[in-house]
């Protein structure tokens, strides 16, 4: 009798089974959308490259709902460059520990001494990990100055963030010109997109619909004008910076032309002396 009661309690009705199947299907769709998210794919590619992770390991990591939740909270954080910082730190720590492990060094010595056929493959792995380590160190070195700018943007009120645009973009330009691994359009675009998203979130918070409707019309219009001026300021600065970059390129080209002319003159003088 008790067994029957337990069976009736544990069994699910057809409607409950359908609800459970619907929940599982919805969870599967959410997981698939999460995996296909551009930010998740970007992070997966960076981790696989920095840590030499196989794609299967990353896929298994994303199968866990807890892992997806943790990663989602991390990606939704307000720190735009935190993603790159964390990937760089993870790559640096993992690669350095793997390369310095005693068992790995012993294995290398044995394979080298016996001229094993496995040594070329191991050498390729070492080279890949070493390159990933150098890239992670370069990214961490050049992007770490952004932490101060991010902190300032998060702490300042929206009207005051306008004066922080110039030093921020100047730092990004320095990253573009000095970093060996972060000087590609794709990576800089991702970084700029993160900062633009931060500006958009701050503008939305500043232009809260409830506050605009509750307050005075003049105050609401003033806030809207502040947001418009901020947008114009960022566009104007980027255009001015682009124009300045073009001018610097023209100056460099002119200097190169002058150097070539000087070399030609020197060659002509040498020929005349020989004659």
From TrEMBL:
User: In which domain of life is the source organism classified?
Assistant: Eukaryota
InterPro entries named among the record's database cross-references: DHC, Dynein_heavy_tail
Domain Dynein heavy chain tail positions: 98-250
What's any GO biological process attached to this entry? cilium movement involved in cell motility
Any one Pfam family here would be DHC_N1
The Acidic residues compositionally biased stretches are 16-25
Q: What GO cellular component entries does it have? A: 9+2 motile cilium; axoneme; dynein complex
Q: Which GO terms describe its molecular function?
A: dynein intermediate chain binding; dynein light intermediate chain binding; minus-end-directed microtubule motor activity
- Comp. bias (Basic residues): 258-275
Region described as Disordered? 1-28, 235-275
Name of the protein in its database record: Dynein heavy chain 11, axonemal
What species was this sequence derived from? Cricetulus griseus (Chinese hamster)
- Lineage start: Eukaryota, Metazoa, Chordata, Craniata, Vertebrata
């Amino acid at each position: 009798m008790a067994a029957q009661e337990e069976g009736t309690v544990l069994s699910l009705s057809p409607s409950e089974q359908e609800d459970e199947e619907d929940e599982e299907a919805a969870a599967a769709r959410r997981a698939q959308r999460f995996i296909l998210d551009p930010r998740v794919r970007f992070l997966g590619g960076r981790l696989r490259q920095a840590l030499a992770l196989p794609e299967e390991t990353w896929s298994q990591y994303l199968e866990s709902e807890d892992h997806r939740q943790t990663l989602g909270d991390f990606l939704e954080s307000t720190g735009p460059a935190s993603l790159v910082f964390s990937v760089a730190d993870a790559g640096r720590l993992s690669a350095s520990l793997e390369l310095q492990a005693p068992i790995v060094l012993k294995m290398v010595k044995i394979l080298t001494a016996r001229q094993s056929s496995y040594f070329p493959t191991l050498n390729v792995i070492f080279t890949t990990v070493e390159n990933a380590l150098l890239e992670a160190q370069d990214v961490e070195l050049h992007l770490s100055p952004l932490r101060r700018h991010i902190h300032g943007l998060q702490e300042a009120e929206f009207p005051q963030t306008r004066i922080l645009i110039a030093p921020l973009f100047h730092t990004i330009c320095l990253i573009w010109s000095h970093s060996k691994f972060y000087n590609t359009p794709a990576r800089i675009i991702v970084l700029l997109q993160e900062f633009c998203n931060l500006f958009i979130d701050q503008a939305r918070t500043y232009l809260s619909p409830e506050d605009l409707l509750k307050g005075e019309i003049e105050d609401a219009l003033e806030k809207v004008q502040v947001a418009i001026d901020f947008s114009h300021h960022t566009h104007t600065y980027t255009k001015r910076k682009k124009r300045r970059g073009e001018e610097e390129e023209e100056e460099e080209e002119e200097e190169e032309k002058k150097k070539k002319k000087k070399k030609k003159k020197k060659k002509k003088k040498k020929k005349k002396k020989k004659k």
